[in-house]
From TrEMBL:
This is Glutamine synthetase. One of its GO terms (molecular function) is glutamine synthetase activity. Residues 155-585 form the GS catalytic domain. Residues 58-150 form the GS beta-grasp domain. It comes from Geomonas silvestris. Pfam families: Gln-synt_C (PF00120), Gln-synt_C-ter (PF18318), GSIII_N (PF12437). PROSITE patterns: GLNA_ATP, GS_BETA_GRASP, GS_CATALYTIC.
Amino acid sequence: MEMFGQNVFNQTVMRERLPKAVFKTLKKTIDEGLPLDPSIADVVATAMKEWAVERGATHFTHWFQPMTGITAEKHDSFLSPSEGGALMEFSGKELVKGEPDASSFPSGGLRATFEARGYTAWDCTSPAFLREEAGVVTLCIPTAFCSYTGEVLDKKTPLLRSMEALSTQALRVLRLFGNTTATRVISTVGAEQEYFLVDKAFYDKRPDLMMAGRTLFGAMSSKGQELEDHYFGTIKERVLAYMKEVNEELWKLGVTAKTQHNEVAPGQFEIAPIFENTNIATDHNQMVMETLKKVATRHGLVCLLHEKPFAGVNGSGKHNNWSMSSNDGQNLLEPGHTPHDNAQFLTFLMATIKAVDTYAGLLRATCASAGNDHRLGANEAPPAIMSIFLGDQLSDILDQIVAGDEKSSTKAGEMKIGVSTLPALPMDATDRNRTSPFAFTGNKFELRMLGSSFSISGPNIVINTIIADVLQEFADRLEKATDCDAELEKLLQETAKKHQRVVFNGNNYSDEWVQEAKKRGLLNIPNTPEAQKQLITKEAVAVFAKHKVFSEKEIHARYEIVIEQYVKTLNIEALTMIDMANHSIIPAAMEYATTVASSINAVTAVSAKLNVSAQKELLEELCDKLAAVSAETKNLEKELEATLAIADLDEQAAAFRAKVFTKMDDLRANADALEKIIAAKYWPLPTYREMLFQL
């Protein structure tokens, strides 16, 4: 308990160090979303600086989240010159506003390269924290980031906007149910984080891991995950020591890391926190990813957050557990014991179902990336079809609503295991479904489509916005009704009938579901270039603008950024493959072929009667596959050159997917076949067996 939050300027610290009136004013902004009073900035800044300096801090930084998907920071010293000496100073102006160079961050055309000015703005709802690296302690202040002209350049600002939009509309609905005490509705998130660990010695010998974050070559080892012996297995000592330090680092930062375990694939693991307000959960997930990477190096390891670092075994995702709660203590997605007559719960549930069905393309777009294209729909993660799992109890209630006769709820029971010494277990009213992309899991929805390297801001921006939009529609209609109860019953029935198609409780991995989804008219968008187009549809632009989350200019800029990132990612991967083929794989194959040929000559020199058919067969196979690798490398070079010459970004992205990516697969198939026949001492790269099983 002494460790937890010790490096966080949290409300406990603020209560101790701030004047009572200042703390009360700041707390109202944090808890109720009221505008920040600029007059308190100097007092807060002084207290924050003194607290940080006492703990060894010499610098501060505005810590923000640009469109790169990672965090950014510029460090400034507390030192100010004074009569030949120096003072440790930090003003309210420095706390509230920073000015990093914005010219080199992705802007999607919002800013020209020569237009360098950008601003960071203090997000007082997310607490400042201390970070120690290489003996330097830095005060990190979570901030938003915008351009000189006011357009957002980060992932936090639109998230905060979407949270306000959801709160505004959800409160309107709560008022209709007689709630007069709640003043704010907050979306909450718990983000489960999957990752791989590899020995750094192996990582340093793999240019593909260093440049692309995934193995672009690599034959599968004789054993993978088929025995299912890694999942929830005993954690090895080296990994457990790593996890222990990760937990300690995170607990000091106030991150509620709670669960850790082996994941399905060998070398794969998971860490999960407790629920928090969405913007804090987003900040904390960035800290989790940074900490996983930083601590790994101390243990001679490298943490891989790519969605598919190894072909043939499961990739890594990030499960986004989302709910919404009022500040008077209600979880608005809590069904209660009799959900069939819990009208408030059913209203928020139906709003969520309608939002997901109506804006399925938007949710799909937020989960699309070059890395996640390797994972979605690959019998390990939800497919590219958006659907909702409700479970038996709620699905039965949905059927009753459609029929206009909701009278009962399936009851939870008691499970007797059949061994006298084992306790009877309370049985949930419904099972869970790990194949569903958007699954109801008791009092929350779990979006399972995110990639492990993602910032969770994008999906939560969309979830908050689309549900706010449907809640506004519900409130507009119900507020005008003369008989609100009757109108609500009619509204729920209409919504259930129209949007029940998105509910599916079966196996999302099956081919049958793909066909069934097509019959239902559900979207199936297979790749990133197609998925990202959903960001700039007329409907998407309209819903973002309506709730002031993105302007049309801002959302088009984001589309340009993600498509450009996709193109750059595949370009880096293709160039890395060409380099590895030309400088590692082909030379190794030639050297081994020469050795085999020398062996044939040496043996036949002893006696022409000696049987060298095995060597000749091996040499023939080697030369055939070597020629194929060489040819496919040249084919990839030509295709890449032609694709890079395409001027239109959309056409270029499509060509990378359809042509360059295909040539990359062809090259890999031949190189992996070559790996299987080359003697181990000649193969220049650490193998899957070494990387996955030698932790």
